[in-house]
Amino acid sequence: MSENILNSTVIEMRDAAISTLRDSSLTVVENVNWSVASGEFWVVAGQQQSGKSDLLMTAAGLLLPSRGSCRVFGCETDSFSEAQLAERLRVGFVFAGGKLFSQLTVAENVALPLRYQKNLSEAEVSENVSALLEIMELTPFANSTSVNLAANWRQRAALARALILKPELLLLDQPLGGLGVRHRQWLLQFLEQLRVGHAWLGGQPLTIIASTDELRSWRHTQRRFAVLDEKVFSVIGVWNEVASSASTAVKELLAEPTAAIM
Do residues 173 and 155 touch, judged by C-beta distance below 8 A? Predict the structure, then answer.
């Protein structure tokens, strides 16, 4: 991949106001100015109900900014219609909790985007799904319905569904939420493989944005960090700048979890 492509802008928000999905008249984040370059890995942190989910959905083109602009792969999201289908399919999104279809098996959930968006035979769909399930250690659960899966595996299956179309931009809302230690470590390592270029994506680096309500798990020198606090979106920078930040909001997001009172 050329240096020009690597440095191209994937997401650009200018003076964007973010409204909540539940109530379009309620602004949860004001005046977002943010550029995401191809190949970057961003972590957006904030307390619960700070607007992280709404910001990510706006960045993905799933919600429109109530003011200002948002461009994804150079397209204004207010015109992100059927005519821009090719650009829309370059974006993968993983919702908090996975949001799988409970009546479908893992394989059927992962296959859905292929069946809707690609003109493939059933054999080709099955081949693609099987290959990705193998990569993500989901093969033993291929024929299990999502309602019968533990949260760890549901989240992984949701990630597989987002990756089946081989996107160039991946957004994950609270991907570590509810995961056990082993699954958290696997996910963080797998996301790093995607960032640098996984074989599933033909070795091409993937642009990644993840939201979180704690920062410690995401420590890495190759990630960039931003914080949402009281409707303000602030770019902090790389990890050293996070660790040395005097911001109260950043310090709270870095704090050790409070032990439960027995």
Answer: no
